[in-house]
Each structure stands twice: as structure tokens, then as C-alpha cells.
Amino acid sequence: MVTFGPAIDVRPLFPRERRAMLELLGGLGHADWARPTVCPGWDVHDVVGHVLNDHMRRLSSGRDGYGGAVFADDETLPVYLARVNEKFVRASRQLSPQLMIELLDHLGPRLDAMWAARDLRAPADVNVSWAATDLDNPAWLDIGREYTEYWVHQQQVRDAVSVPGATEPDLMAPVLDIFARALPHALRTHDRPEGSAVHLEVTGPAGGRWGAVRRGGRWRMAEHAGEPTARASMDQDTFWRLATRGITVEQARGRSTVSGDPELTTAITALLAVVA
């Protein structure tokens, strides 16, 4: 899967990320659960309910083969996800914080076991639409996307209650790495000569450098992309918030340094790594 770059195995990190989340949630007061988050209309309780939904949904489909909710007529993926996510979050408002903590603690290891049984290079259970819409994805990318989902929601809760954490490089770096795999898709509408390259640099302890090159009529991840046609650099906090739209594209561009082909730098700094 040259298009997506080298495989990354995040499976050993799920228990650590979850432990940090559970310790965070266990220390929250009653008022903290009602604090608003960056997710429109959702407070901390709602975000935790959404994480619980993710656990249940992936176990139901990936382990048990249960189809669950179906698309309505003419419903796009973003509209479908918004509908089913909101439906579960509303239902989860009946659950106590303690019960949700206990459910996450109970279901997490079962999800870990499901991931552990996967062949990372086999086809993904669920394709990652923000990485490619016309190619089958490898399982490692799907699993990596799930890790980013849990990490980001933990950060959204931490932002809401002003408790930083879980940003150690070994926990955060894989999130940035997976998000960078959205680079070819971000560039997809920009046709350039064969061999054209772009570089993305994310600064900070968890940061790194990534490249994409135009080969065979499409953009592909490339570790050695050659002299770039366009460059963009931003710090690690800006990058993950841009990729998840925790900040606007305009805010991210104000915090970035770019050079080269302006259309390509505009595309890089609009990179999106969530379904929206």
C-alpha cells in the first residue's frame, strides 16, 4: 500500500491511552461532566458517550459481524454518522458517569483483543475515507484511525476541564503520523507533473516530517520525496487541531510557515483527518 506510506502498529498503545482517559474521568467532579467541549452541542458527558458508542459499534461489527444501523435513502456518510452518533449520545445521557467509566474499562480490553487478532496488512474492516475514497485500505490504517479517535476525544475532554496530559511523544506521535496519511487525499484535486513533491513538517517532541509525491497519476506518501514543489510547517498542537477541525483552517494557516506552489500549500494546510 505505497499510497498510504509505511505501516504503523498502534495496538500496544490502546491500553495506555485508555488508562490515561479513565484516570482523567475518575478525577472529574459533577460540574466537569457538564462542561462544553469543542464538539458543537456536546459536553464532556456527551463526548464520553460517543467514545463508548465507538467501542460498542466496533465490537458489534468487527467481532460479532452485526450490521447495526443502515443508511437512509440518499444519506451521505457524514450525514449518516452525524445522525447515528447524535442518536446514541442522546440515549447515553441517561447513563451515569460512573457507569460509563465502568463500561469503557470493561469493553476496552475486548477491543484490544479484537485488534490483536487482526493481520495489519489485510483489508480494513472500515476504509478511512479521509485517506482515500477509491482504494481499499489496509487494516493498520483503520486501526490507527481508531486510536486517533480515542486520543483526540480525550484531548477534547482535557481541554474542556483544563487538565493537560497524554501528550507524551510515544502516545501523541502516532496520532500525528496517522493524520499525515491524509496528505495525498488533501492534494487529490491538484494535477502536477510526474515526480512533483510536497513536504510537511510538524515541529515539537511528537512531530516529524512527511512527504508526498505525484506518481502514476495520483499523489502517494513518500519517505524520500525529493526536492519539494511546496513546503508547509506547523507545530504539533496546531497540526492535530487542524486535522480534526478543533481550529479553523485560517487559524492553522496563521500559525504555519509555507513556501512554494501556493495551490499545494493551500491544500496541505487544509488537511482533514476526520469525516466531515
Q: List the domain count as a whole number.
A: 2
> How far apart lie the N and C ends?
25 Å
- Uncertain residue segments: none
Mean pLDDT: 95
CATH architecture of the largest domain: Up-down Bundle
Total DSSP helices: 10
Q: In the CATH hierarchy, what is the superfamily of the largest domain? A: dinb family like domain
CATH fold field value of the largest domain: Four Helix Bundle (Hemerythrin (Met), subunit A)
Shape: globular
**SS content category:** alpha+beta
Order of helices and strands: HHHHHHHEEEEHHEH
The side-by-side strand order for the widest beta sheet comes to 3-2-1-4-5
Note the main sheet: 5 strands, mixed
Strand content: 5-15%
Radius of gyration: 19 Å
Pfam families: MDMPI_N
GO molecular function: isomerase activity
Protein name: Maleylpyruvate isomerase family mycothiol-dependent enzyme
Domain Mycothiol-dependent maleylpyruvate isomerase metal-binding: 16-157
Give a structural overview:
It comes from Actinoallomurus vinaceus. Helices cover about 45% and strands about 10% of the residues. The chain has about 280 residues and is an alpha+beta fold. It has helices at about 15-25, 45-65, 75-90, 95-115, 140-160, 170-180, 185, 235-245, 250-255, 260-270, and strands spanning about 195-205, 210-215, 220, 230-235, 255-260. The chain starts with 13 loop residues before the first helix and ends in an 8-residue tail after the last helix. Strands 3-2-1-4-5 form a five-stranded mixed beta sheet. It has two domains: about 1-125 and about 135-165, dinb family like domain (Four Helix Bundle (Hemerythrin (Met), subunit A)); about 185-270, SCP2 sterol-binding domain (Nonspecific Lipid-transfer Protein, Chain A), CATH 3.30.1050. Helix 1 (about 15-25) runs parallel beside helix 5 and helix 2 (about 45-65) runs parallel beside helix 4 (about 95-115).
